[in-house]
Automatic annotation (TrEMBL):
PANTHER family: DIAMINOPIMELATE DECARBOXYLASE, GROUP IV DECARBOXYLASE
UniProt pathway: Amino-acid biosynthesis; L-lysine biosynthesis via DAP pathway; L-lysine from DL-2,6-diaminopimelate: step 1/1
Organism superkingdom: Bacteria
Designated name of the protein: Diaminopimelate decarboxylase
EC number: 4.1.1.20
N-terminal signal peptide: none
Biological role stated in the UniProt entry: Specifically catalyzes the decarboxylation of meso-diaminopimelate (meso-DAP) to L-lysine.
UniProt binding sites for pyridoxal 5'-phosphate: 203, 245-248, 344
Family: Belongs to the Orn/Lys/Arg decarboxylase class-II family. LysA subfamily.
């Protein structure tokens, strides 16, 4: 995590405008993580009252928090404003209207980034232009909704137009879609007299399996800055600040999930290694057919002679951790390490089947530190009215 944070920070700099890396904390949000992010001076992307609450508990500097989301509730907006958050990435016209009213009521200056749907959807290796005009996120720049939203901000006493935001996808492995996004966003700026800011979103891919070829972070973000400088010069516009908001790439490869192998079962065509977790700590295989690499940590040097399916213990056929992999012969009690589970694993965990969520341990060289304790049964009844 530290190496990745440094690579983002050192690469994402310009002599022409301010730059800021925001951590998209939905990928993995705990107080310990936010303290680490804060110690490197990064900003934060939050998407809910719960993420704001955690950020406040971590004493994250509120002036560097950006509040995202397509349907922030009135209570969440009030909570954010009352706690000093001033940056809002707004998704739609109704949100701008409400924010305008709230900014007056609280008599607070609020900075608004407009989330745009730039019509570019990045897939791992390619991108589609004019895709997804009906996306639930953001507004098409040309749309009436968007123009009205901008107008409301510009005519409001308390709202300040900070700039534009777009996020074009996740687990992206090549630059072209981002460059097309930059061209679009910079193009829009020509219509404004004031100097605005841009946020290019996140999406930097990571290596889950051998077939993933992530872009080197430092070089990639340097190129994003360089290309933006060039595009600005060509279009004759300047910006105040350029932002990006990586989530997965900050934490993904740093995480390893340790399971204990339980029963082993042979069916006519498959051999199953069952583990003491599954979709409740990592829903990505079930939800996105995501693939992972693994090893038997207790038999690291043994030959991988067994073709197996690693399955979880939840009552769902889809609860499979790895569909097919080669591992050494195992026995109950062996430890199975699944790699690159740091992002969207713990943060998407659940108590389905009343499973307990596991502990989270930060490791630094040969020292380690418990940052989330393993749940216990009593945690399951928290909030129940008995
Ligand atoms: N900014 C915005 C506005 C986003 O919606 C997201 C992710 C990010 C930044 C961070 O993207 P990243 O750098 O992590 O790719 N649960 C899914 C991923 C959902 C991503 C949602 N938005 C998964 O496990 O693959």
């Amino acid at each position: 995590m530290k190496e990745t944070i440094k690579a983002f920070k050192e690469g994402f700099q310009s002599d022409h405008f301010k730059t800021k890396v925001l951590y998209a904390s939905k990928a993995f949000q705990t107080v310990a993580m936010l303290k680490l992010i804060q110690s490197y001076g990064l900003g934060l992307d939050v998407v809910s009252g719960g993420e704001i609450y955690t950020a406040l508990k971590a004493e994250f500097p509120v002036e560097t928090i950006y509040f995202h989301g397509n349907n922030k509730t009135p209570a969440e907006l009030r909570y954010a404003i009352e706690n000093g958050i001033i940056h809002f990435v707004v998704d739609n016209r109704m949100e701008v209207e409400l924010l305008s009213i709230l900014s007056q009521e609280y008599d607070k200056k609020l900075h608004v980034m407009i989330r745009l749907n730039v019509g570019i959807e990045a897939h791992t290796h390619e991108y589609i232009v004019t895709a997804h005009v009906d996306s639930k996120f953001g507004m098409l720049y040309e749309s009436e909704n968007c123009q009205q939203a901008i107008q409301i901000v510009q005519t409001s006493d308390h709202l300040v137009l900070e700039g534009f935001h777009a996020h074009i996808g996740s687990q992206i492995f090549e630059m072209t879609a981002w460059l097309a996004e930059i061209d679009k966003l910079v193009g829009y700026l020509k219509e404004f007299d004031e100097e605005l800011s841009l946020n290019l979103g996140g999406g930097f891919g990571i290596r889950y399996t051998e077939s993933d070829r992530p872009l080197p972070i430092e070089e990639t973000v340097k190129e994003l800055v360089r290309y933006t400088e060039e595009a600005l010069q060509k279009q004759g516009v300047t910006i105040q600040q350029l932002m990006i908001e990586p989530g997965r790439s900050m934490v993904g490869e740093a995480g390893t999930t340790l399971y204990t192998v339980g029963f082993i079962k042979q069916t006519p065509h498959k051999k199953y290694y069952f583990v003491d977790g599954g979709m409740t700590d990592n829903i990505r295989p079930a939800l996105y057919q995501a693939t992972y690499r693994c090893d038997l940590a207790t038999k690291l040097t043994a030959a991988k002679t067994e073709k197996v399916t690693v399955a979880g213990k939840m009552c769902e056929s889809g609860d499979v951790v790895i569909q097919e992999t080669f591992l050494p012969p195992a026995e109950p009690g062996d430890i199975l390490a699944v790699y690159a589970t740091g992002a969207y694993g713990y943060s998407m965990s659940s108590n389905y089947n009343r499973a307990l969520t596991p502990a989270v341990v930060f490791v630094n060289g040969d020292t380690s530190r418990l940052v989330v304790r393993r749940q216990e049964y009593a945690d399951l009844l928290r909030g129940e009215v008995l």
